[in-house]
Design goal:
The structure is a homodimer. Chain A is built from 13 helices and 10 strands. Chain A has helices at 4-20, 26-31, 39-51, 68-78, 85-96, 102-117, 170-184, 192-207, 212-223, 237-240, 247-257, 260-268, 317-339; strands spanning 55-57, 64-66, 120-124, 133-142, 145-152, 157-163, 230-233, 274-278, 290-299, 302-312. The longest helix of chain A has 23 residues, at 317-339. Chains A and B meet through strand 4, strand 5, strand 6 and helix 11 of A and strand 4, strand 5, strand 6 and helix 11 of B.
Chain lengths: 343, 343
DNA sequence: TGTTAGCACTCATTCCTTTCGAGTGCTAAT
DNA sequence: ATTAGCACTCGAAAGGAATGAGTGCTAACA
């Protein structure tokens, strides 16, 4: 339904606006090398594109800016993945050089990503729910406190301090740890509560006598919320974007970005592949004039987490999509290589 | 050298400005109940206070604002600690209710502090250098990766993944862990490197054969940098302060606050008690128009960490100083109660 | 019939001027 | 020593005028 010429003009306008952040006028377009038409012709086409909803004016005699529909069309039809040799190498080296824990990689990725793009990067995960318990340790600290340490097959370590009653003797504690290790090895974190209620509660009664209170404490330590880890990089990059030249916008952005819960919800809904949400396409009102690009990374079948970039709707979609694609594949690879022989 | 009346006027002006953020004029002062003088008299006194450097004008016919010297005098001589029954209780409950790990307490404290004050709170620590190793675990994850877990006497858990060569056999690994536990129990984290070089290297040679590579890996895992933990709460509170109505100031602030290294240096220099740095009194240029109040908290003799509040020079010094005092004492207490029977 | 030149018109932005009012400093009176 | 009074200063807000980038439309052209 769009002519070749309209496609070309739309693309050039959006490319120009993404770079300059200024409304694009007909004369500027006509001057481009790829455009063999006069400003007047461009004006006519622009008027048509506006009628069709791909462009907007900021006021009656201004140049045009892309509408959300325009960006959507641009993302869906007008961009081909860009080749990012240099950036790709940066990411690969970061992930493959040295031996970093996965959480370190995630954190570094968030930083690199925001540096390469000048937008705000958000990385969610790794989702511990999919991972399985590997080993449990309980280490007494003092007469009435101890720390429980859980290690998962992905090398993730969680610990919880808990208080132990004075009366308990150390052999009882040891027996409990043994039972836990026997029973919980290989159990997905998500199913811990279930497993406790179905089997372990009863077992504990059978093998270990008179430890009601300390067992409750221990169980409590295991079933506490497992917080979702959230890494955000380049928050202040947004301040450099010309659309954030207004104190109120900045306030709104920072109020949003520091609300972890909201961010987690925002990212969690993303499924496979790369998803682009432009402006009001986002459910969350606070980012209704920003765009969010998300990509999932995996370990085997189960989804592990989400990588995202948040920027103005005037975003370098081409570059961002390519970068996220590279990074999510690298992260999936490194996870696979590292934990393929898990048990 | 200041008359009683000048003291009174200075105090009223600063109090007023702290509340309103607007330059204070003579008429407004004269209207206050505690002031039995006319505006003209106040004007004369204000001129004198300005000559002495306690007050400033923003322009030739504006009201007065406090100078840094004025704030300094105010902090040193004009404020008595305020009674914060309600806020004090909030803090006490937070710290004493439930059983939280110390790091959780620190994080919660940062949040509560920024909520109670509407400034930005920064908490440094707990300094792990002062703490001692309690136990070491090494847990194999796959054929060639393992995770080393260090637990300190304060319940702090650190973990590092490292790769192990395929050739190693598990009994060798076990021997190594035993040696490490024997040798390192009770050793301050700070002295780990020393201890390794002085004794453990040699021991390993004696007891365990042919494990050069994996031992190097393991040692590397132990001697990696122990990052200083930094908790910052209420970054966006600053945006609500009227002095941050300018995009450039916001940029400068966020650029500074997200530079962890600089922040750590800023706080580390603080010694005992509560220290107030007003505006240019701060060494760091980036906060030359902010004030920083720091308080140390302790475990026994050794300093553990620092609590700080960062706000505009027009800060509620009275309240902030009282809050920091309460919180640092509570944190010191809880540390003492919890780890007094360490070994 | 598609393209382009030309021109009147629109509107944000910038700069200047005016007005307003809060506040000062100084002088003279109490 | 204190205060009333008054001229003066200066920032902030409000109102024009000038500028210029950009449009829509019409009429001419290939």
């Amino acid at each position: 339904m769009l002519t070749e010429r309209q496609l070309l003009i739309l693309q050039v306008i959006i490319d120009d606006f993404i770079e300059s952040a200024h409304p694009v006028g007909s004369r500027a377009i006509a001057k481009k090398e790829v455009i063999p038409y006069s400003a007047a012709t461009i004006r006519n086409e622009m008027a048509d594109l506006e009628d069709m909803g791909f462009l907007e004016k900021t006021h009656s005699s201004s140049g045009r800016i892309p509408s959300e529909k325009g960006y959507r069309y641009y993302v869906d039809h007008l961009i081909s993945p860009s080749i990012l040799q240099k950036e790709g190498n940066v990411i690969k080296h970061m992930i493959q050089d040295g031996f970093f824990e996965f959480e370190q990689i995630v954190q570094m990725s968030a930083e690199v990503l925001s540096e390469l793009t000048n937008y705000t990067s958000i990385i969610l995960g790794p989702e511990i729910f999919e991972t399985k318990l590997k080993q449990i340790q309980i280490i007494p600290l003092s007469a009435n406190t101890a720390v429980a340490i859980l290690v998962t097959n992905t090398g993730h370590v969680e610990h919880r301090s808990f208080s132990i009653p004075e009366e308990i003797n150390s052999s009882d504690l040891e027996k409990m740890v043994n039972i836990l290790n026997d029973q919980l090895h290989g159990v997905p974190i998500l199913q811990l509560a279930e497993k406790f209620n179905a089997e372990i509660d009863a077992m504990m009664q059978k093998y270990v006598s008179d430890l009601d209170k300390s067992y409750q404490h221990l169980k409590g330590a295991f079933l506490q919320d497992h917080p979702v880890k959230l890494y955000i990089g380049g928050k202040s990059n947004m301040l450099m974007q010309p659309e954030f030249n207004d104190v109120n916008k900045i306030r709104a952005f920072y109020t949003m970005i520091e609300n972890e819960e909201e961010i987690v919800n925002l990212l969690k809904q993303s499924n496979d592949g790369i998803k682009v949400s432009i402006g009001r396409e986002n459910d969350v009102d606070a980012i209704k004039d920003l765009s969010l690009i998300t990509a999932a990374y995996h370990l085997g079948e189960g989804q592990m987490g989400t990588i995202a970039l948040l920027g103005p709707t005037r975003m370098e979609y081409r570059k961002v999509i390519s970068l996220l694609s590279i990074l999510s594949h690298e992260m999936t690879d490194v996870l696979y290589m590292r934990y393929k022989d898990e048990n």
